[in-house]
Amino acid sequence: MLLPDQVRPQLKNAEAAAALGVKPATLKTWRWRGVGPAFVRVNGAIRYDPTDIAVYVGSRRVQPRGRG
Questions:
Q1: What pLDDT digit, counting tens, does each position of 30-61 carry?
Q2: Contact 3, 36 (CB under 8 A)
Q3: Comparison of pLDDT for 68 and 65, the residue scoring more
Q4: CA dihedral over 32, 38, 44, 46, signed as positive or negative
């Protein structure tokens, strides 16, 4: 069980979309497709943990290949 000091502020759909540089509708599509950052549903409201947004962005990192 989470203790009160372990709960972080959650981002609303529009806030998470802004953090990722996409439209809110894109996040809805990603949820429908089962891709994108992890999210929680609380009483029907979708919320994103900022840590999950950071993890998602980190998972998309591409290391360029060196020439030579």
A1: 999 999 999 999 899 999 999 999 999 999 99
A2: no
A3: 65
A4: negative
Q: Which position has the token pair 């549903």?
A: 41
pTM of the model: 0.80
CA distance 57 to 20: 8
Q: What are phi and psi of 27, to 5 degrees?
A: -65, -40
Q: Which domains does the chain have, with CATH numbers?
A: 8-59 (1.10.1660.10)
Contact yes or no for 46/31 (Cβ under 8 A):
yes
Instruction: Identify the pLDDT of residue 2.
Output: 65
What is the average pLDDT value for the chain, to the nearest integer? Answer: 91
- Number of H helices and E strands in the chain, helices first, is 3, 2
Q: Which residues pair with 8 in a beta bridge?
A: none
